[in-house]
């Protein structure tokens, strides 16, 4: 198997939790399943239909993550905006969508340099 150099700046947290996404805060939401999250962004799996976002699209996402590690008894609800930067076709009916957050959701990170 081909090894690739790890380019991520931090570890991702892997969850299978629901995420709602829409083009704007007032638009109807579509449901997806979060697969991983970091302070920079998230990846989720959604249906490959007319509601699937496209690269460059700005999204508003609502999701929850456990406050304390993997313990799902106490969840932290988050709403963030971000831009779709990658879409991978998993099969003909499902896509994995990668989104970069405009602002980190809950980690204390230095501001982005533009």
Folded structure, characterized:
This protein is an all-beta fold and 114 residues long. The protein contains no helices and six strands. It has a six-stranded antiparallel beta barrel with strand order 1-2-3-6-5-4. β4 (58-68) and β5 form a beta hairpin. It is globular, with a radius of gyration of 14 Å.
Which terms would index this structure?
globular, disordered C terminus, six-stranded antiparallel beta barrel, single chain, mainly beta, 114 residues
Kindly, what is the distance between the CA atoms of the first and last residues, rounded to a whole number of angstroms?
37 Å
How much strand content do the residues show?
over 45%
**Quaternary class:** single chain
Continuous helix count: 0
Strand order of the largest sheet: 1-2-3-6-5-4
Q: Can you tell me the overall shape?
A: globular
Main sheet overview:
6 strands, antiparallel, barrel
- Low-confidence runs: 108-114
**Class computed from helices, strands and strand pairing:** mainly beta
Q: Please state the CA-atom Rg, rounded to the nearest Å.
A: 14 Å
Q: What is the H-and-E element order? A: EEEEEE
Q: On the 0-100 scale, what is the average pLDDT?
A: 83
Total number of β-strand segments? 6
Binned, the helix content reads under 10%
């Amino acid at each position: 198997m081909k090894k690739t150099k790890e380019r991520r700046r931090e570890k991702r947290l892997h969850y299978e939790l629901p995420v709602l996404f829409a083009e704007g805060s007032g638009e109807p939401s579509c449901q997806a399943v979060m697969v991983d999250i970091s302070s920079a962004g998230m990846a989720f799996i959604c249906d490959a239909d007319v509601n699937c976002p496209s690269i460059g699209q700005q999204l508003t996402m609502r999701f929850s993550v456990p406050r304390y590690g993997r313990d799902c008894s106490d969840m932290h609800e988050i709403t963030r905006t971000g831009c779709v930067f990658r879409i991978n076709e998993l099969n003909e009916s499902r896509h994995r969508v990668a989104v970069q957050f405009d602002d980190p959701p809950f980690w204390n990170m230095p501001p982005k340099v533009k």
